[in-house]
């Protein structure tokens, strides 16, 4: 049976790429998202995978462009549907948000067929995603610095929480953030529609980060093995899980120096960062409110009063 996504169509044992048309650009040209269909020779489950939902998060498409050439449909059981670049307009201008409606794509799921530019793209990709049994939405901590982790966004009381958490554990970045996300995330809309969904956050980079991309590639192959798309089993390992996420801003303006490395444990009361003047005079020392792991930091040192500095994952356990 032929499987189609946009103009891509592949019979059993075939792979095809094409475009999923989602509208027209300002000059009236139609445009489409780059898509791939990998139709396994044997029947099985369907995996949906997408990247660049946020336009400056390129590690995901780095994963896609390495994984797809390594997939042999003759060796595959089941089907993989891929949207390589979701946020078309933001990607063109290397920005996080869609410049057509100044919206963050991952707040618009499940989308709206007759809505704004972002809502229409969300709708088109959600239609593809909900054909699957599993959803992987490849993100990263934007252009800031962040550890490699996988987010479970449905919340601990959701009926699909266990399935989402298992998918996150199988992906296996080492860290999981298990905390209900904001409305409009694909990792919330997917589970609400009955499909286990994860949001791997592959580090944070301007452009591509090799280490994070390789973790993403390994994660996708772990998923393919564990859920029977490929032969071989994935022996998954215990993950360090945070269930809380504290954000820190600066109480003063100046230059930030971190006193802990990314991924390092911090204890309540320990200094996380200091803010100095251009002449090295200390203006403030900011301590951790609770125990946790330094999870994400800003990239540039200069801050204004109230500006975001870092995040600490809290309520740590292993899962
Ligand atoms: Zn993102």
Gross morphology: globular
N-to-C SSE string, H for helix and E for strand: EEEEEHEHHEEEHEHEHEEEEEEEE
SS-derived structural category: alpha+beta
Average pLDDT metric: 97
> Total helix count?
6
Ligands bound to this protein structure: zinc ion
Helix content: 10-25%
CA distance, first residue to last residue: 40 Å
Task: Tell how many strands the DSSP assignment holds.
Answer: 19
> Which consecutive residue ranges, at least 5 long each, have pLDDT under 50?
none
Query: Biggest sheet, open or closed, and with what strands and sense?
Result: 13 strands, mixed
Tell me the β content: 35-45%
Describe the structure.
The chain is of the alpha+beta class and 319 residues long. Helix content is 20%, strand content 35%. It is built from six helices and 19 strands. It has helices at residues 59-70, 88-92, 117-129, 161-171, 186-192, 210-226, and strands at 3-5, 8-10, 14-24, 30-39, 42-51, 77-83, 134-138, 145-146, 149-152, 175-178, 197-201, 240-249, 254-258, 265-266, 271-276, 282-287, 292-297, 302-303, 308-318. The strands form three sheets. Strands 3, 4, 5, 6, 7, 8, 9, 10, 11, 12, 14, 17 and 19 form a 13-stranded mixed beta sheet that branches. A four-stranded antiparallel beta sheet has the order 16-15-13-18, with no helix packed on it. Strands 1-2 form a two-stranded antiparallel ribbon. Helix 4 links the parallel strand 9 and strand 10. Helix 1 crosses helix 6 (210-226). The longest helix is centred in the C-terminal third of the chain and has 17 residues, at 210-226. The mean pLDDT is 97. Bound molecules: zinc ion (ZN). Zinc ion is lined by residues 53-54, 57, 106, 139. Residues 53-54, 57, 106, 139 line the site of zinc ion.
């Amino acid at each position: 049976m032929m499987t189609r996504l946009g103009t891509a169509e592949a019979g059993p044992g075939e792979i095809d790429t094409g475009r999923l048309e989602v509208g027209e650009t300002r000059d009236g040209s139609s445009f489409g998202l780059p898509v791939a269909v990998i139709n396994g020779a044997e029947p099985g489950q369907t995996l949906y995978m997408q990247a660049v939902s946020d336009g400056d998060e390129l590690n995901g498409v780095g994963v896609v462009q390495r994984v797809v050439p390594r997939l042999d449909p003759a060796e595959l059981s089941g089907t993989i549907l891929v949207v390589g670049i979701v946020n078309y307009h933001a990607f063109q201008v290397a920005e996080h948000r869609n410049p057509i409606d100044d919206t963050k794509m991952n707040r618009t799921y499940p989308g709206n067929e007759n809505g704004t530019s972002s809502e229409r793209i969300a709708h088109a990709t959600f239609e593809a995603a909900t054909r699957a049994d599993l959803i992987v939405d490849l993100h990263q901590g934007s252009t800031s610095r962040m550890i490699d982790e996988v987010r479970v966004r449905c919340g601990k009381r959701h009926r699909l929480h266990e399935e989402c958490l298992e998918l996150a554990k199988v992906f296996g970045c080492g860290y999981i953030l298990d905390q209900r996300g904001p409305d409009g995330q694909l990792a919330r809309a997917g589970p609400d529609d009955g499909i286990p969904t994860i949001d791997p956050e592959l580090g944070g980079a301007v452009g591509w980060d090799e280490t994070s991309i390789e973790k993403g590639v390994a994660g996708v192959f772990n998923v393919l093995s564990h859920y029977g798309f490929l032969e071989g089993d994935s022996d998954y390992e215990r993950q360090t899980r945070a269930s809380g996420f504290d954000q820190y801003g600066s109480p003063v303006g100046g230059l930030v120096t971190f006193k802990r490395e990314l991924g390092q444990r911090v204890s309540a009361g320990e200094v996380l960062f200091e803010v100095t003047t251009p002449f090295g005079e200390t203006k403030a020392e900011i301590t951790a409110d609770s125990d946790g792991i330094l999870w994400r930091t800003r990239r540039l040192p200069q801050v204004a009063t109230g500006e975001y500095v870092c995040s600490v994952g809290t309520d740590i356990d292993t899962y």
